[in-house]
Backbone:
C-alpha cells in the first residue's frame, strides 16, 4: 500500500487527472496477455520524461516499486506489477515526433502503436520492418523493452536492429541519452543495446530514434500445405539454401491451425499436418520469379498444395490465419504455457519432432507455430491449470523441451522476454557468472531495486 | 436473456490479449485501458468474483460502450463483449434501478402504443419554443439550457406529421386496406411485406418511411405498416431495462402476427438487428408456444436493403434517372456501414448495390465500418464523448469529397449530420432508400 502522502506527491507530479487509485482502474492495469493478475497500488499517466524522473526519484526515496507499461500485450509478464507499487502507463506518450525522409530515421515516444507508426512511414514510401503479431495494438516502447521480433525477422532482423538511440529515465531518476542519430557511432559502451530487451528493469524509455528503410516495391504471399510435418520443417531450410531469403517464412502445425476460425474459408485441405506461410518482397519482377522458385521447392519437398495470393485481400486472409493462432489456442484448453524457443534453422525438424515426442510422453496437447525462417518456434502447451497433475506434467515437459533446445544450440526465448513466466529456467541457459554480471549491472543502475522488481532473475 | 452470471464462461474465454484495443472506439478516444473492451471484461470478471461491487466506477465503464460490436468481430476468441456489457447493464438496472426520468419514459411512454404518439405530438408542438432552426439545415439548436441537450448539438426536429399518422389518414398502401384492419387471406401473388417503422423514422424522419413504401411497391411488394406497432425496445435493452424490452417484443410480435406476412422489413438497422436477433433472446424464457412464434417472426425479418436485393430481386429502378436536384449521374455518394447492419446482420454489399442502382458513383471512405459514435442513448448521456468518436467518421466522409453520404440507419444519419455540421462540411446525409425513391415520382422534400 502507498501512504496517502506518497499518493499526494505523485498527484502533484502528474496532476490529478493522471493518477488513478480506484479499484476499478487498478484492476484494468493488473494484467497483460499472460492472463495473470497482480494489483498495483496506483497507475500514473505521465506526459514526459521529467514527470517520470520525479516519480522515480520519489520511488527511490520512499522505496515503492515502479513498473512501466505499454499496451499490456506482452507474453512474459514484463509489465505485471508482481510486487504491487506504481504502474507507469505510457499510453499518453504516443506521439511520432519526427520522420526524417533525408536520413531515413524517425523519433517516437514509447506509447506509439507499432502498426500506426508503420502506416505513417509507409505513406512516405518508407519501411519499419519489425512486425510482432500484436502490431495493431502493441506499443513501440513495449517492443523496445522486450526486443520484439516478428515474421519479418528472417530477412530484416528484430527491434534491436532498428533502435539507433534512446532517451531513458534511469531507475534513480536521471535522464540519459544513448546512441546516435547516425548509422555509425562508437563513442563509449553501447548502452542502447543494453537497454533494448532489458524488460523495463534498467530504465524507462521515453524517446526512441529508429532506423527506417525504403519500402519494398511489392510483396507476394503464399501458403503451402504439407501432409507430413517433417517435410514442412525440411522445406524451410531448403528454401533458404536455394539462395532466397523470404521476408517471411512461418510454420504452423495442425493443432495451431485447427483453432483458427476462417481457416476453412481458404479452401485448403483441413487434414494437413503443417502449413508454411511464405512471403517475398522487393522488385515486382524479381519476386514473381522467386515465388515460382519457392513454389517449386515446396512441391519438390512434399507440399501437396501451394496457394499464391492473387491480391492484397487474399494475402490478408492468409495472414489472418497466422495472426489469429496465438489467442485462439484457448479453444484447446483454457491455459496456455507459451514458449518461444529458437534453434538454428537446420535443426527445426529435430526440434519439432523432439518437442512432439516430449508432449506425447507427458500426455499433453501441444501446438507449434512460428517464425521457422529464423528458427523461432512458438511452443504452446495447452493445459487446464485447475488440473494440478497436468500442470505439474507441463512444468516437467517445459524443462525437457528447454534442455533439448539448448542441446541443439538454441535459446529459450527469442522475442517474448523472460519477465516472470520464464524466470525459473534462466539458469539453464546462462551460467552463474553471466547471471552475476547482469545482476551487477542492475545493481549499479537500480541500487534500491525499485524498477520492475521480480523479473528475469530467479529469486532465491 | 442471459444474466451476467450466465456469461461467466464467455468472460473466461477472454485471454486478455488486447486485440480489441485496436478497434474499440471508446478506447480510441480515451486511450486508457478501462475504456477498452478488454478492460470492461476484466471489470465484469472482477465483479463476478466479488472483487468489486456495482460501484460508480463500474457503472460508468459499463455505460461508456457504444455497442458497435467491433471488439467481438476482431476478437480471436470470439468473446461477445457487447452482450456481456448489456448483461452488466441489466444487472445494474435490476440492483440499482434506473434513473427516475429514464425509467418513467421507458415504462410509461415507450411501452404504450397510445401514450407514445401523444407524448411525441406534445413535444412536436412545443419544440418551436425550446429550439431555434439552424440556417440551411433541417435541424434545431436549443434556445436556452435544457437538460440532456448540449448547446452545440443539432437536434433533428420532430416531424409535423408522424409517419404512422399519415398512413392512418392517407390512402391505403397497395394491396392492404388502411389502418390495422386484418386481412383474412392472400388474394395476390405479390409478396406481403410488413413495414416496421421504428421511432426515429416514425417521429423524426417520416420521409424515409414514405420512401421505403414507394420503393417496396415499385419492387413489386404489397406493403402494410401496422398502425399499432411500437418501439422495438432496443433503447430500453441498451439501458438495461430488460422487462420493458421484453414487453415491447411481445406486443410487436402480436401486432405483426395479425397479418399473413411473407416478410417483415425495416429501414432502421438497430430495429432490424433487434427484431432478428434480440426478440428471440428476450422471449427465450417464455413458453414453447411463444418461442415458436418468435422464431417464425424473426425468420421473416429482413433489412430493407436485403429484402430488395435478395428477396424481391430488385435489379433495375425502371425509372428515368433524374439529372437535376439532389442526385444526378455525376453525384458522388459515399456509404457508411451502420454497426447494427454490417456487424449485427452481416449486410454490406446490398446497400452498395442499391446506391449504384440509383445512378450515383459510389466512392468508399477510408473506414466505412467505423462506428459513428451514436450508441443509442450514449449520445444523450455522453454527448461530448459520442461526438469525439464521430470526429474521425466526419473527417473520413469529408475527405472523400462526396456530395452525399448515404447510410441505412436513421440513428447514424442524425449523428453523422450533427458531426458534419460541427466540422463545417455540407455533405448531404440520406438513407440509401431515399436515393432510390428520388427517381420515383415526386422528388424528395423536407429532410435533405
Residues:
Amino acid at each position: 500500500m502507498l501512504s496517502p502522502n506518497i499518493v499526494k506527491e505523485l498527484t502533484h507530479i502528474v496532476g490529478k487527472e493522471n493518477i488513478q487509485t480506484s479499484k476499478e482502474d487498478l484492476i484494468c492495469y493488473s494484467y497483460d496477455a499472460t492472463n495473470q493478475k497482480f494489483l498495483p497500488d496506483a497507475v500514473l499517466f505521465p506526459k514526459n520524461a521529467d514527470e517520470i524522473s520525479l516519480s522515480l526519484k520519489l520511488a527511490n526515496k520512499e522505496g515503492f516499486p515502479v513498473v512501466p507499461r505499454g499496451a499490456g500485450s506482452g507474453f512474459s509478464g514484463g509489465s505485471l506489477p508482481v510486487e504491487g507499487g506504481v504502474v507507469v502507463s505510457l499510453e499518453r506518450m504516443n506521439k511520432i515526433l519526427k520522420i526524417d525522409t533525408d536520413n531515413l530515421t524517425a523519433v517516437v515516444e514509447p506509447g506509439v502503436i507499432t502498426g500506426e507508426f508503420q502506416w505513417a512511414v509507409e505513406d512516405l514510401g518508407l519501411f519499419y520492418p519489425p512486425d510482432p503479431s500484436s502490431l495493431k495494438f502493441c506499443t513501440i516502447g513495449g517492443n523496445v523493452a522486450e526486443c520484439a521480433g516478428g515474421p519479418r525477422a528472417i530477412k530484416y532482423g528484430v527491434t534491436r536492429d532498428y533502435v539507433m538511440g534512446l532517451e531513458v529515465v534511469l531507475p534513480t531518476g536521471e535522464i540519459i541519452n544513448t546512441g546516435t542519430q547516425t548509422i555509425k557511432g562508437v563513442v563509449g559502451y553501447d548502452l542502447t543495446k543494453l537497454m533494448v530487451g532489458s524488460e523495463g528493469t534498467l530504465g524507462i524509455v521515453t524517446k526512441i530514434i529508429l532506423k527506417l528503410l525504403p519500402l519494398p516495391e511489392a510483396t507476394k504471399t503464399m501458403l503451402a500445405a504439407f501432409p507430413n510435418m517433417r517435410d514442412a520443417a525440411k522445406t524451410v531450410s531448403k528454401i533458404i539454401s536455394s539462395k532466397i531469403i523470404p521476408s517471411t517464412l512461418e510454420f504452423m502445425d495442425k493443432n495451431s491451425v485447427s483453432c483458427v476460425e476462417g481457416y476453412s474459408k481458404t479452401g485448403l485441405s483441413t487434414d494437413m499436418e503443417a502449413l508454411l506461410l511464405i512471403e517475398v518482397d522487393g522488385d515486382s519482377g524479381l519476386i514473381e520469379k522467386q515465388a515460382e522458385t519457392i513454389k517449386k521447392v515446396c512441391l519438390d519437398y512434399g507440399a501437396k498444395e501451394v496457394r499464391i495470393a492473387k491480391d492484397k485481400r487474399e494475402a490478408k486472409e492468409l495472414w489472418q490465419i497466422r495472426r489469429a493462432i496465438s489467442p485462439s489456442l484457448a479453444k484447446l484448453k483454457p491455459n496456455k504455457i507459451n514458449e518461444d524457443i529458437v534453434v538454428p534453422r537446420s535443426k527445426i525438424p529435430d526440434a519439432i519432432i523432439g518437442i512432439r515426442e516430449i508432449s506425447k510422453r507427458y500426455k499433453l496437447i501441444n501446438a507449434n507455430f512460428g517464425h521457422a525462417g529464423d528458427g523461432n518456434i512458438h511452443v504452446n502447451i495447452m493445459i487446464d491449470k485447475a488440473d494440478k497433475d497436468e500442470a505439474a506434467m507441463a512444468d516437467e515437459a517445459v524443462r525437457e523441451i528447454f534442455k533439448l533446445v539448448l542441446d541443439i544450440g538454441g535459446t529459450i526465448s527469442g522475442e517474448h522476454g523472460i519477465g516472470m513466466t520464464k524466470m525459473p529456467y534462466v539458469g539453464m541457459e546462462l551460467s552463474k557468472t553471466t547471471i552475476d554480471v547482469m545482476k551487477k549491472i542492475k545493481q549499479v543502475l537500480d541500487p534500491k531495486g525499485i524498477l520492475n522488481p521480480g523479473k528475469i532473475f530467479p529469486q532465491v | 436473456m442471459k444474466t451476467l452470471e450466465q456469461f461467466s464462461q464467455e468472460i473466461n474465454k477472454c485471454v486478455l490479449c488486447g486485440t480489441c484495443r485496436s478497434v474499440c472506439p471508446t478506447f480510441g478516444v480515451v486511450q486508457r485501458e478501462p475504456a477498452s473492451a478488454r478492460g470492461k471484461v476484466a471489470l465484469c470478471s472482477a465483479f463476478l468474483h466479488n472483487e468489486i461491487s456495482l460501484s460508480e466506477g463500474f457503472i460508468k465503464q459499463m455505460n461508456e460502450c457504444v455497442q458497435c460490436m467491433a471488439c467481438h468481430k476482431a476478437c480471436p476468441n470470439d468473446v461477445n463483449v457487447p452482450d456481456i456489457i448489456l448483461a452488466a447493464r441489466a444487472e445494474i438496472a435490476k440492483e440499482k434501478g434506473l434513473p427516475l426520468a429514464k425509467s418513467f419514459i421507458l415504462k410509461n411512454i415507450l411501452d404504450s402504443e397510445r401514450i407514445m404518439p401523444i407524448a411525441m405530438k406534445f413535444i412536436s408542438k412545443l419544440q418551436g419554443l425550446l429550439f431555434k432552426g439552424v440556417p440551411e439545415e433541417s435541424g434545431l439548436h436549443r434556445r436556452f439550457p435544457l437538460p440532456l441537450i448540449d448547446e452545440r448539438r443539432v437536434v433533428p426536429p420532430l416531424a409535423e406529421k408522424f409517419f404512422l399518422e399519415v398512413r392512418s389518414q392517407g390512402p391505403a398502401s397497395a394491396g392492404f386496406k388502411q389502418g390495422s384492419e386484418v386481412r383474412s387471406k392472400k388474394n395476390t401473388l405479390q409478396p406481403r411485406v410488413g413495414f416496421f417503422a421504428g421511432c426515429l423514422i416514425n417521429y423524426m424522419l417520416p420521409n424515409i418511411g414514405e420512401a421505403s413504401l414507394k420503393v417496396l411497391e415499385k419492387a413489386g411488394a404489397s406493403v402494410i405498416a401496422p398502425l399499432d406497432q411500437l418501439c422495438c425496445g432496443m433503447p430500453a435493452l441498451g439501458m438495461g431495462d430488460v422487462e420493458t424490452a421484453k414487453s415491447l417484443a411481445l406486443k410487436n410480435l402480436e401486432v405483426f402476427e395479425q397479418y399473413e406476412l411473407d416478410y417483415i422489413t425495416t429501414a432502421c438497422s438497430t430495429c432490424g438487428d433487434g427484431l432478428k436477433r434480440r426478440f428471440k433472446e428476450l422471449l427465450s424464457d417464455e413458453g414453447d408456444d411463444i418461442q415458436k412464434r418468435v422464431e417464425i417472426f424473426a425468420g421473416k425479418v429482413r433489412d430493407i436493403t436485403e429484402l430488395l436485393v435478395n428477396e424481391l430481386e430488385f435489379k433495375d429502378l425502371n425509372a428515368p434517372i433524374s439529372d437535376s436536384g439532389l442526385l444526378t449521374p455525376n453525384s458522388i455518394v459515399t456509404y457508411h456501414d451502420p454497426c447494427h447492419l454490417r456487424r449485427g446482420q452481416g449486410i454490406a454489399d446490398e446497400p452498395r448495390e442499391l446506391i449504384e442502382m440509383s445512378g450515383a458513383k459510389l466512392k468508399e471512405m477510408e473506414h466505412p465500418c467505423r462506428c459513428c459514435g451514436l450508441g443509442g442513448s450514449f449520445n444523450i448521456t455522453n454527448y461530448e464523448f459520442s461526438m469525439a468518436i464521430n470526429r474521425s467518421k466526419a473527417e473520413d466522409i469529408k475527405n472523400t469529397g462526396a456530395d452525399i453520404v448515404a447510410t441505412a440507419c436513421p440513428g447514424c444519419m442524425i449523428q453523422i449530420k450533427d458531426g458534419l455540421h460541427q466540422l463545417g462540411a455540407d455533405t448531404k446525409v440520406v438513407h440509401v432508400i431515399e436515393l432510390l425513391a428520388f427517381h420515383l415520382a415526386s422528388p424528395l422534400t423536407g429532410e435533405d
